[in-house]
Amino acid sequence: MTDTATNTRPRRLPAALRRWNIAVGALILGIVVLAAILAPWIAPYDPFKMASGPRLTGPTAAHWFGTDELGRDLFSRVLLGARLSLGIGFAAVAVGLLFGVTFGMIIAFCPERVKALLLRIVDVVYSFPDTLLALALVAFMGPGVENATIAIAISLIPFYARVTYGLAAVERAKPYVEAAQIAQTAPARIMRIQVLPNILQSLIVIGSIGFSSAILSAAGLSFLGLGVQPPSPEWGSILASGRNYISRAPWILIFPGLAICLTVLSFNLIGDGIRDLTDPKSRRRRS
Amino acid sequence: MTGALISVRDLSIRYGGPDGRAAVDGVSFDVNPGEIVALVGESGSGKSSISLAVMSLLPNSAHVGGSILFEGRDLAACGRREMEDIRGNRIGMIFQEPMTCLNPVLSIARQMTEGLVRHRAMSRATARARALQALADVGIPEPERVMSSFPHELSGGMRQRVMIAAALTLEPSLLIADEPTTALDVTVQAQVLDLLVEIRNRTGDGVLLITHDIGVVAEVADRVVVMQGGHVVEHGPWEQVIRAPREAYTKALIGAHMSLEEALTDGGLHG
Amino acid sequence: MLFFVARRLLTAFVTILVVVILAGVLIHVVPGDPITAMLAQSGSADADDIARLTAQYGLDQPVWKQALFYVGNALRGDLGTTIRGGEPVAELLLDRLPNTIALAVAGLGTALVLGIPMGFIAAVNRGRAADFAVMLIAILGVSIPGFWMGLTFIQVFSLHLGWFPVAGTSARNIVLPALTLGVVHSALVARMTRSALVDILNEDYIRTARARGLREHQVLLVHAMRPAMISVVTVVGLVFAHLLGGQVITENVFSWNGIGRLAIQAMLQRDYPLVQGFIVIFATSIVLVTTSLDLLYGLLVPRVRRR
Asked: What is the pLDDT of residue A3?
């Protein structure tokens, strides 16, 4: 039963408006991906070249996003940054998913005692903020884009493992899996052929969540100086280098930041949208 | 104007807009003071919707047509605050699933006294005393212990009694009971039904009993309204509907309830 | 009841133990020789120093012995000494811990104060404009990098408007960093509150409460919010953990003198003992907080205690 106050409330929004997430998210993401792919060709200047223009000038026709403290064109840098961010995000999520989903599934099919123990371990690691996990790993591995990517991938594994376990455990209890087990099908085969396709949809949703998280972590790490190293124009890194000049040149703050924001937003919108579509609970209830 | 407590005329309920599916159409019946009127039908017959319509508890998407007069007043014309004053206070309602109908995180005491505090402006202490009395009235042993319990600590039958007691504390003139026994064991069902009859005898309230179980109807109803697919199929006093049903559907309902048919032919049932 | 508490505390202890062990051996993740790396940052690197430090950190011992060594010391309150100045790690961190806690609490408080009402408004107006607006704000909040929000706040409120000082650690200074943390996490809280409330508003007992003639605000605030808040408590732990993660960077942005800022400096300077100590203290804090919340939840929900 939905809320039952008398009919004096304003009407519901039209259905189309409520389905906007995926459309807008996909649009933004599309633009970002395009920018990332085409960056080397459409960037008006070399992102690393200093003194492409006068230092710390605001947005002009020649420099759409202005220039930074070394005279580099900000627009070109942000464009290339898209490549870096998406690249790191993609690599980290791919690796994280691979290991995380595998672990999660394996745990779901383990015998009781082992399962309880492994789950405990995963939960313990999962209770720590992933940004911090990545940070701690990078602290010991050393800074740099590869280490940062690995660290972020590892920080995503507990999340993926936990969620996969939850999904797989539900599936495991279902009759079709029981039937396969009775038929002596190897667990690995059951996992791969039967359970995986059924949880794919949910995995896509958490994949997008992981992406947002990965990009935020990457930006954060680079901002602190532990991720992508200058002069590479990862968005967080641009913000770090330009930090001291922000009052004079606010565009250095605005554009890279907006880039991070919009990219992460697009993943969140898409993830939300897919979840809304597939989650039976969010369908409108009727009595 | 009849002296009826509730007078439903030509009631229609549509979900999903004014042209939506009609869950209920053209339904009319009365409930008089001191009368137990049973609304009986299978699930989907619209009987629950009617009870919710009386209480104005249908979702916003439901369109209600026709009239519902309570003590002469048109309920459709009542604004939100008026309805809030009537609910619980003048019309009490108890529901089917005692498991889910009580708030799990509030104590029984809280849930029993809040109605009194709200409608009668009583102090918590006075309300508590009144609630204890009500619990005793419905035959609950150890009312004190029950008062300080939480819903999950009580059995289904107990919870249903608590709900009835809570409804009674406000002394409504009409009690709507929506499938009050469906989720209970058979032995407990009988107790709850006896309780309803006793209440009717004691207070002279009208009772609108919603049920799908024609056996229940046969036990306690004074008048019966048989529903199918949102329409009234047959209605009348117990004597007429149960003993000498005119409509095929009513006959089918009775026929499907085996022990009832036997009991009727044996002649061992009252009205 | 006692059993429940004992079990939770035991879990907490074991978790902390595991983390300490991990922190102890994390030093092996360093490519090459950690000692050389550490010393490279502080200047000197002669053979004596290397030998001394290697022995001090037990790096010439097998891994399990090192772990034992580290854990043993940790339990006694000794987390080693920093490379830079030879100061005791535990002292350095514990000195700054109150600052971090203060900011964390302020941030969490802000997140709750902003997020819960937002979630409430969204849930009660489900499907309508207010819901849409709140959820839009929420999804934006979750997408904004904390450090960017922090920098922006500094720009606008400190430099432009001059309302707050730019850096430092004091009562006046807490506003902006707390707001930064709070706004980002209020989005999370709002979404969770809304989700919990929407489910609750569909429950039968809400219908019962209405049938009792309670005024709508009573139904919402008492019958709906109470169970919703209990749901929210279960996730406050998660929110808090996430917040602490973001806090490390926020402390850096605002030069807030907490353990996060210290840790970042340590990481940049390859001061591994300090980083290890940070991990231990940080993890312990999170475990203590989540355990306390677990216990609180058990107290609030009578049913849970009986397990």
From this structure: 40
Mean pLDDT check: name the lowest of A158-172, A187-201, B19-33, C187-201: A187-201
Which residues between 201 and 260 in chain B have a beta carbon less than 8 angstroms from any beta carbon of chain A?
A: none
Residue B101 near residue B161 (C-beta atoms within 8 A): no
Backbone angles phi, psi at B206, to 5 degrees: -90, 150
Neighbours of B52 (CB within 10 A): 23
Give the per-residue pLDDT at B266.
Answer: 58
Cα–Cα distances in angstroms (integers) from residue A265 to residues A21, A218, A258, C141, in the given order: 10, 15, 10, 9
Burial grade of A157 (CB within 10 A; 0-12, 13-18, 19 or more): buried
**Max Cα-Cα span within chain B:** 55
The upper half-sphere exposure of residue C157, i.e. CA atoms within 13 Å in the direction of its Cβ, equals: 20
Q: What is the pLDDT of residues B168-215, one digit of tens each?
A: 888 888 999 998 888 788 888 888 888 888 888 888 889 999 988 888
Give the relative orientation of helices C175-201 and C146-153 as an angle to the nearest 10 degrees.
130
- Determine the Cα–Cα distance for residues B49 and C8; give it in Å rounded to an integer: 47
- d(C-alpha C133, C-alpha B56), whole Å: 29
Segment A98-153, tens digit of pLDDT: 999 888 888 888 888 888 888 888 887 887 888 888 888 888 888 889 999 999 99
Give chain B's contact residues with C (Cβ, < 8 Å).
Answer: 55, 57, 80-81, 84-89, 92-93, 95, 97, 100-106, 114-115, 118-119, 150, 152-153, 163, 166, 170
At A259-282, the pLDDT tens digits run 999 999 999 998 888 877 766 554
* The two structure tokens encoding residue B187: 């032995």
Q: With an 8 Å Cβ cutoff, are C275 and A140 in contact?
A: yes
pLDDT for B25: 87
Question: Contact at 8 Å (CB) between B153 and C301?
Answer: no
Q: Say if CB A158 and CB A100 are below 8 A apart.
A: yes
A62-to-A30, A53, A152 alpha-carbon distances in Å:
25, 9, 37
Mean pLDDT over residues A218-242, rounded?
90
pLDDT at A283: 44
Return left, alpha or beta for B224; rule: phi > 0 is left, psi -120 to 50 is alpha, else beta.
beta
Residue A58: phi and psi, rounded to 5, are -75, 180
Q: What is the ipTM of this complex?
A: 0.86
C99 CB-side CA count, 13 A: 26
> Among partner residues B59, B80, B83, which is closest to A2 by beta-carbon distance?
B59
Assign 3-state DSSP to chain C and report helix, strand, coil percentages, each to 5.
80, 0, 20
* Helix, strand, coil abundance in chain A, percent, nearest 5: 70, 0, 30
Indicate yes or no: CB of A131 within 8 angstroms of CB of C272: no
Q: Which residues of A touch C261 (CB under 8 A)?
A: none
Contacts of A212 in chain C (CB under 8 A): 142-143
> Which of A250, A191, A196, A253 lies closest to A223, judged by CA?
A253
Q: What is the pTM of this model?
A: 0.82
Distances (CA, A) of C109 to A151, C173, C186: 31, 16, 9
Residues of C whose CB is below 8 A from A260: 145, 148
Residues of chain B contacting residue A6, judged by C-beta atoms under 8 Å apart? 56, 60, 79-80, 83
Nearest chain A CA: its distance from B229 CA (Å): 16
Above 60 in pLDDT, residue A166? yes
Closest residue of C to A121, CA-based? C15
Number of neighbours of residue C75 by Cβ within 10 angstroms: 11
Beta-ladder partners of B67: B9
Do A13 and C128 lie within an 8 Å CB cutoff? yes
The minimal CB distance from A6 to the residues B15, B52, B56 is found for B56
